Amino acid sequence: MKTSSTNNRLLSLDALRGFDMIWILGAEGIFAALFTLTGWELWRVFAEQFKHSQWHGITFYDLIFPLFIFLSGVTLGIAGKSLLGVSTEQRLKVYKKALLRLLLLCFFGVLYNHGWGQGAPVDAEKVRYASVLMRIGVAWFFAALIVWHCNLIAQISIAIGILLTYWFFQVFVAAPSGFSGELVAGESWNSWFDQHFLPGITYQNMSPDPEGILSHIPAIVNALGGAFAGKIIVQSALHTKQKLLFLTGFSATCLLLGYLWSLLLPLNKTLWTSSFTLVSIGWSCVLLIIFYFLIDVLNWRRVGMFFAVIGANAILLYLLSSLFNWQYFINSLLGGLVSRFDNSVGPLLAIVALVLTQWLLAKWLYEKKIFMRV
Question: Which residues are within 8 A (CB) of 51 and not within 5 positions of it... i.e. 6 or more apart?
Answer without folding.
Answer: 59, 61
